Amino acid sequence: HLNMEYCKSIKKLPENISKLTSLETLVISGCSSLSVFPIDMRKMESLKVFQADGVPIHQLLTATEEVTLWPR
What we know:
- By secondary structure, the protein is largely without helices or strands.
- The chain is built from 1 helix and 3 strands.
- It has a 3-stranded parallel sheet, with no helix packed on it.
- The longest helix is centred in the C-terminal third of the chain and has 4 residues, at 57-60.
């Protein structure tokens, strides 16, 4: 479980965050300064809960501008 809710000073998530193979919950809600979001996170099979309320939507878009980060 990683809760970084309202960490307004964080500007990017580390590229290797996707290597946390046991991470089930990631909360980045309120991280309004977040400007770099690793695209490899969509490959995280263990991630069950992802909350990103208040994060600028353009930061969550993939290179193809799809909002879906994880396949269904």
